[in-house]
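so my prof wants the structure for this chain in the tokens format not the other one, which i didnt know existed until like an hour ago. anyway here's the sequence
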Amino acid sequence: MIAPHIRYPLVVSQTGGLAAVDQDTPAEVAGCVHAVIRHRQGARYEDPGFGVPDATFTRGETLATDVVEAIGRWEPRAVPGVNVDVVGIARNHEVHATVEVAR
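here's what i got, hopefully its the right format
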């Protein structure tokens, strides 16, 4: 039996509880990758190294490298292939990442 994991990002199920996904499925791996790239390093008290470095003053190429390295470190089941489209808007960056699940 495959152990269910709480879905990330969090979703409320039809029964009112938190939705779950089966462990080691593409949906579960994608959720873990999402968690990695959505967290800035230092945001998690229990593990301050988790996530991606602050990108406030980061160039697009460096940001892409940071994302690939963070995925490789924190979610080894995913093979990061990053196609970066960086848009500078008042120092904000928008990154589009594609991730292939390792088999």
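also thought this was worth mentioning. The mean pLDDT is 80.
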